Amino acid sequence: MKKNIRENKGITLIALVITIIVLLILTGITIASLTGENGLLSRSSEARNSQNKAQIQEELQLIVMESMTEQNGYVASEVAAKIEGAIANGDSVTGTYKGYSFSINSSGKVTVRGENEDEYYVYVDIETSGIGAYLVESGMSFDVDNPDPTVLTTFSEAYVLKNGNRINISSEIRTLEFEDNSLSALAISFIDSSSPLYNYEGDYDIILIKDGKEYTYSYKYVDPHHPEVSENYIYLISSGIAFNNGRTTFDNAYVVINGTRQSVAFETGSGKAIGSTYNYIDLASIGSSLGLFVGREYEFILVKNDREYSINATIPEQEKPKE
């Protein structure tokens, strides 16, 4: 007589729990890919916003061109009359068109701001000796070498946020004069000992304030200078100089002998660029004049704008004069 044995093919509780956990993880990944900052929905919304802005800007620009043709030139009041709800203020026009804020400057250039987009943004120009900051109309580009004053605006206060400390630098605000326009610019010197950025490297926020609203730009400042040894000569190199292989001048130079600094002489070279010069230390000559040991490594310190740059270099033999 055969016995019927029933096999239990059902899933266990542990397998069920594992399955549920895997499903939850996959669900979380899917939601994140859809709704995250760089998710599909966010990117789709940004693309739609950009497309709408471009379309509205084109429509408004056509209205401006039509008005300029009729009036034989740009007349702000006539342009505003063609756009429902637009307001003419002097030579500029502002308003809302199909849900998007816009402005038209004195030359007839249209700027459209997207949804939840700030009216202005901070443009920062970093040079080897300092920084310039400007408040630019949203949607407009700015070229510091060929500035268009119509895209700039004024601001009343300026701050640097450094290591959690908010430092008022409003005294650094300068006024730029462009014909009839007075505009603001922020000038901070990296080499001015009174500047809050003096002798510091790292991450900073520049905050410009207009009409009580803050506009922020985050940046990282890195000192562009570093010393370099090449063919028994020491140079100070700047990444901000395109000629002379980046070689630049320095103010003082020292060698450390038995823990004590001793001033050393340095030479001046002429670059290929007209009027450009740079300084250098001749290691063989310094070794001979100070009685330094040939083949021994010494620490050399170059000083520029009160900043010190240290490098180790070996004293070579001095070349014998040809007979």
Can you tell me about this structure?
- With 323 residues, the chain is α+β, with helices and mostly antiparallel strands.
- It has 3 domains: 92 residues; 102 residues, Immunoglobulin-like (Sandwich); 90 residues, no CATH class.
- Helices cover 21% and strands 39% of the residues.
- It contains 4 helices and 22 strands.
- The strands form 5 sheets. Strands 5, 6, 7, 10 and 11 form a 5-stranded antiparallel β-sheet that branches. Strands 14, 15, 16, 19 and 20 form a 5-stranded antiparallel β-sheet that branches.
- The longest helix is centred in the N-terminal third of the chain and has 32 residues.
- The chain is flat and about 85 Å long.
Give keywords.
323 residues; alpha+beta; Immunoglobulin-like; 3 domains; 5-stranded antiparallel β-sheet; 4 helices; 21% helix
- CATH architecture label of the largest domain: Sandwich
Whole-number tally of structural domains: 3
The CATH class label of the largest domain is Mainly Beta
Radius of gyration: 32 Å
Q: Report the structural category.
A: alpha+beta
String of helices and strands: HHHEEEEEEEEEEEEEEEEEEEEHEE
**Total count of helical runs of at least 4 residues:** 4
Mean pLDDT: 79
The CATH topology label of the largest domain is Immunoglobulin-like
Number of strands: 22
Share of helical residues: 10-25%
Beta-strand percent range: 35-45%
Largest sheet: 5 strands, antiparallel
**What is the overall silhouette?**
flat
Q: Unreliable stretches, pLDDT < 50, 5 or more residues?
A: none
What is the distance, rounded to the nearest whole angstrom, between the alpha carbons of the first and last residues?
122 Å
